[in-house]
Amino acid sequence: MGSPFLLQPSRSLTEEAMAAAGQSQDDLKRIAALCAVELVRSDMVLGLGTGSTAAHALDRIGDLLRGGDLRDIVGIPTSEWAAGIPLTDLAAHPVVALSIDGADEVDPALNLVKGRGGSLLREKMVEGASRRFVVIVDDSKLDGIHGDLQAISDDLLRITDVVEHGMFLGLATSVIVARKDGVVLMDKEAKSNGF
Q1: pTM of the entire structure?
Q2: What's its EC (predicted)?
Q3: CA 116 – CA 104 distance, rounded (Å)
Q4: 164 belongs to the catalytic site
Q5: CA 44 to CA 144: how far, in whole Å?
Q6: Which of 34, 70, 158, 186 is 20 to 30 A from 6 (CA-CA)?
């Protein structure tokens, strides 16, 4: 993984939205979500995340569909909120072009802790089927997750009746982090400086 770098969001993110980044944690979440939505193109199958940060992205995608700026988008939901985006499922679309979701914690290797909302099994199914999984967070979610995560994962999955856990190891391809001083992209491949 390369070093994080400062993104230059497109002009579709208004100056007002960027100025709002210093006002609240929710404003930062919205900025990260809007940056992720810039990756969405017409004719895509999307993985629709769960939680307050993902809701910002879903709302924007729904607005773009209603306004005609996007067309022929279908989404595979990980929760009940879909913002008017036409829905499908993994049986009909086993490969997802792009999933956008939040996380409770992100480490420098792009490992995630998720699941406080209770949708983690469905999230893993959809995000695991994705060609690209973009995580959207504000900078309060950056944290070093300690220990041998793969060993912890294996130990948890050996426990009788445990179906899954909230560690998402190696699934994220990119993390968009909204900070008070701008938006940073953490990318496994670090091939570009922006969208």
Answers
A1: 0.85
A2: 5.3.1.6
A3: 8
A4: no
A5: 33
A6: 70
